[in-house]
Amino acid sequence: MSNVTFTFDGQQYTGVSGESLASALLRNGVIHFTNSSYKDRPRGIMGLWVEESNALVNVDSGPGEPMKASTTIPIVEGLITRSTQGVGDLPDTRDNSRYDKSNRHVDVLVVGAGIAGLTATKKFAELGKSVILIDDQPTPGGHMRHLGTQVPAELMAVLELANVTYLPRTTVQGLYDQGYSVATQRRTDHLDANVHTEVSRIRTWHIRADHTVLATGAFQRHLVFANNDRPGIMLSHAAATYVSQGANPFKTAVVVTVDNQGYRDALRLHTAGVAVSAVVDIRETAGGASVEAVKDAGIRIVSGKTALDTAGTPTGLVSAVTIAKADGSEPESIDADLIAMSGGWTPIVHLATFIGIKPTWVPALAAFVVERNDVLTSTTGMLAGDFGGDDDAAVFFGPELTTEQALVAFVDFQRDATLRDFNRAIGAGMRSIEHVKRYTSIGTSHDQGKTSGTTTMGLIGQAIGKAPDEIGSLTFRPPYISIPFAALAGRDRGLLSDPIRTTPIHSWHESAKAPMEDVGQWKRPWFFPINGENMHAAVLRECAAVREGVGVMDASTLGKIDLRGKDVGKFLDMIYTNMFSTLKVGMSRYGLMCGIDGMVFDDGVTTRISENHWLMTTTTGGAAKVLDWLEEWLQTEWPDLEVYCTSVTEQIATVAIVGPKSRELMSRLAPDLDVSNEMFAFMENKYADVAGIPARVARISFSGELAYEINVPGSFGLHIWQAVMKQGTDLNITPYGTETMHVLRAEKGFVIVGQETDGTQTPQDLDMDWIVSKKKEDFIGKRSFSRADTAREGRHQLVGILTDDGSAVIPEGAYIVAGVDEKTAPPVKHIGYVTSSYDSAALGHSFALALVANGLARKGEKVAIPMADRVLTGVITDSVFVDKENTRRDG
Amino acid sequence: MLNIPCPYCGPRDETEFHYGAQAHVAYPESPKDLTDEQWAKFVFIKSNPKGWLAERWVHNSGCRRWFNVWRNTATHEFGPSYKPFTQQPKSPA
Questions:
Q1: What is the pTM of this model?
Q2: Which residue of B has its CA nearest to A206?
Q3: Cβ separation B43–A177 shorter than 8 A
Q4: ipTM of the complex
């Protein structure tokens, strides 16, 4: 034992190494710890461990942490803490501590290293099982630690066995289905006050156990009487433990009890030198060894009475207790600076209730217990109702109080929730714990009702004449105690929090200082500003370059799925709304996929590489979803089809050169390739060396312009891009990003799945009936097109919107209402909404795509778009704005 | 976190799987011959009893295989799992 120096509320103190902050402060005579959060009442340390609801601190040393129970903080040299008044504050510095995770599969998990948990560990270890023993205390023994009793050597020996892993200072935070649990291990806070970067501060354990033994023990409860919250009023087990270990600021005590634990603690107080004026027992008769021992020690025993009220010193510490019968009669005042309450034991049922077990009320113990012994879970020790002694308790939670007394009789200290609040809930008709909890906020604070839960249920029962288990059931939710988010994140912070996907050309985009757009996990260049342009200027310039000259875009992020097998064509005929089995080798075709409900789900271009080899492209964000979709049908409906699917998104880099001058550029890049429209037609694929690299070139266009998509193995992507930039210099080659791509496709009325669609649009709604095969017997979604709802009039359909003010760009998502004029009285009917909206270089004004009820039949109709500050007016148009005749795609 | 018995890989954590609702609901032989009611029942209505249900799951962060498994929707207990198009084991009920 050595002394350590620490700071609390700006003052230095010395405590004994290994003890808790709460213990050290009591040792230094700090009884008034803080004031309560709402009513500003003086409060002191009440408990021994995580049940503490008054004495919370902010830790300012090391990594810092808010709202920690002082009873759980081991004091170390240099520890700096501040009392909190119910609310903590997060450190404003970055926590550089290391956090990590560990996974473990074991035969048996034992939670709690008290005598019961150690005994269970011994039993399973001797059967040859692998056992992980988790305990939230620093040393084994449970309550025996507090009592200063030696743990039997045969039980201590199990900790050394090869098949036993013992984790002290570790809290099981959650227990879930099939023996899965999550625990947090505090690995450095007890060593010193430093930030550790060489070893993890908290390790989060993910454990799967074939069997879980819950030996979680119990907390003591308080009693509800007037002014039961003054500093110096404590749980008797906590008070006796601190005092026995020399942390003793008290002189005279009164023990108020409902069970024999009060007598045991009275003896410990007495032995430690506190004068115990009386043990006040609500029971009329009590017996057992501890009662006899109290009598032998000459301590006064008052039967059939309990605490009714207390008096305080000018600074608010308790100075006397009024004891009386439960109805308040026969009051008597006794002076004391310590009131030790023993309101009965509350077994720690949290983990059991996490997996849906309902605790059982045992009136003789005045406790909810969990007796369980099945394949997955068993309970033992106090949790299972084994209180190990002469343990009959009175089912009693507090005396009858006047309204004035009830106003200062606290049920939940941390929430400052009183018996008066509670009585109002009952008066308002609440009967269930779930309702009373929400009405009063009892049990919703930092301690999550560890001490107040059973008390609340008992009080409801007492108020309406029912047993606590007739009120409802105790339910708790993980985590058992608060955890820093950093501990749950582990190493998955910053760059490691989510994968970042970049194309082989990404470094070029970065050096061009292109702002990036997140598309799923992909980083895509948004636009390429020149000379400090803003986005609007850059996009107008990029769009004009593509429509008049030549642009280049990195299309490598498009999802790509390699399909092989003799039945791919037949399969694609079911997957896409249009026909694919007739596609000739070397040709590409655009396709639309629907769900079985007939709603558009993804789109893309699929190419027939050879007779039995196809390459499908998907939307950038939809690649994984589409691959899953294909596999689902192949595996669960059509296993006889010979089709093999492989994701090749990362394997292929795609550089698209787009615009009327792209033919010239293509011929420079691939001198051996005949790029004439006659020899290389729209939707055709050709193989050629491009800048010296064997490539597949496709005449595919997502802008309406003449375009070539150059596909090469991923590692050659940057080489091709650089060659394009070099060969295109005198053509004013213009790199463009996702924003320009979006504008160009919208000008052509091409939809983006996920922008023009939200899972409720059929191809017909998108004015794409042309892509729905009338010849095919069946395909996924076909039958749904004739359902009453999909075939009805009035569905939202894709149209264009032109605003009368061509400089106004409508915000995407804006509502459209039918023509508003002075004759139209509100409320006006909303008929649709804007899905895409841009300014257009080609048109010289803004335009928008929108989904409008019955829109295809309403072209030419005037509409209004109400904004926050004005009402825009416009007209419904066709959804194609540029090159309706498709003359530009062939150059 | 469920512990799901993949018939190909053995028991694995739930996070490796995606759910596929009630098993043994085959795509209709000839959808065009179904009434709207029959088709809507196939598309939208799935069984969700309290108790044992044969369900489809896909081990998409593992072997990427679809399979069927009995699961008790009330207790989350798993019964036997089995590959598609194989004999369905009896309900554990």
A1: 0.90
A2: B1
A3: no
A4: 0.97
